[in-house]
Design a protein that fits this description.
Elements lengths: L1 H12 L9 H23 L5 E8 L5 H24 L10 E10 L2 E9 L13
Antiparallel strand pairs: 1-3, 2-3
Helix pairs in contact: 1-2
Length: 131
């Protein structure tokens, strides 16, 4: 059972490439697991830098205030999704972010908003992440 799991893991790690030797799948799976651990550790312990996101809200009959609010909300949601992909879910909170900035521009009947901030983790407060 364990050997078949290792073979399946090695096959997935090498994008479905066929492995011929008996010990190669186990070694390949072990190497892939170590690389995955290293990449996850690097993602968690990396100091986050400023992240930017933008969004557009359109509507001819909608007032500017509603379009601006909608565009800001969409941009913040895009920022959260981008930070979640880049640094992980513990950093994906606009409320905890530092150095926040938002800018909105009106072009014809559309409003474009761009947000940027430096993501921070709630776990740093409790000493769970060591830098």
């Amino acid at each position: 059972m364990m050997k078949s799991l290792a073979i399946a893991t090695a096959t997935i790690a090498f994008s479905g490439a066929a492995l011929l030797a008996d010990s190669a799948p186990v070694q390949a799976a072990t190497a892939a697991a170590k690389n995955a651990e290293i990449s996850v550790a690097a993602r968690i312990h990396r100091n986050p830098s400023r992240v930017q996101a933008s969004a557009v809200s359109r509507g001819v009959l909608l007032p500017y205030v509603i379009k601006k609010t909608t565009a800001q909300r969409k941009a913040i949601n895009n920022w959260n999704a981008k930070v979640r992909r880049m640094y992980g879910p513990q950093y994906a909170s606009w409320n905890r972010a530092k150095a926040k900035s938002t800018t909105c521009n009106r072009v014809a009947s559309a409003v474009t908003c761009r947000v940027s901030a430096i993501p921070t983790s709630n776990f740093r407060r409790y000493g769970m992440l060591n830098d």
